[in-house]
Amino acid sequence: MNMHAANAIGISAWKTILGISVASIGWNDAISLLNRMLVERRFTKVSFLNAHNANVASIDAAFADALENFLILPDGVGVDMAAKILYGSPFPANLNGTDFIPGFLQAVSKPLTVGLLGATRRNAEGAATKLAAIAPQHNYIVIHDGYFSPQEEPGVVETIRALRPDILLVAMGVPRQELWIARNLTEKHCTLPIAVGALLDFLSGAVPRAPGWMRRMRLEWLFRLIVEPGRLWRRYIVGNPLFLARVLRQKLVGGGQSR
């Protein structure tokens, strides 16, 4: 998000990680900020930066360009390590979408319409059921799974426009979900489109979360690697050291000035 837009919505503290500006904001302040965007019906695209996303953005110019127009929140131990290296302190809170989005929905008392787009139909419906149990004040509508064809896409976009949910959770994986939001959605479609990765899979129970003690120790990435080694080994075994190497290069060229 460019600084003019950031100042307009009241964010003054940022940390730039591999060229991506990430809001340096606490949990409660993030909830208040997104709630204000809803009240004002201020169209704001939201995503999260973790080590994997940052690596993808480093080699995918279209993805990096798209993120310029998103409000980016910090996700995970990797970006906290980067913030310590570059700025001397971590982010005020870990705002990973898997925990933050359910927490945000619980915290907002005004009834909202929340659209779900992505994952498999079964997982999306399971996620809607879970969200309805933990934040029952809102109305959850599964719009489509994440496997629609190019021919089906205009109909999906029109369905969103006709519904115009307050929040649209888009779960298509990185970078497809952010690029899809950037290409297809405007204030006519929703207020807060949020790129949520595997959130619907986690909420449905199809993909297990790490035990609480591993999450507290910030080792959920290790649990995910153990559960899905064939899919995730490259992201973590190769990607994490590569991310830190890129951060150190940013440090060496003087890229750690606070904003």
From TrEMBL:
Keywords: Glycosyltransferase, Transferase. The keyword Glycoprotein does not apply. GO terms for molecular function: hexosyltransferase activity. NCBIfam families: wecG_tagA_cpsF (TIGR00696). The keyword Transferase applies. Pfam families: Glyco_tran_WecG (PF03808). This is WecB/TagA/CpsF family glycosyl transferase. It comes from Mesorhizobium alhagi CCNWXJ12-2.
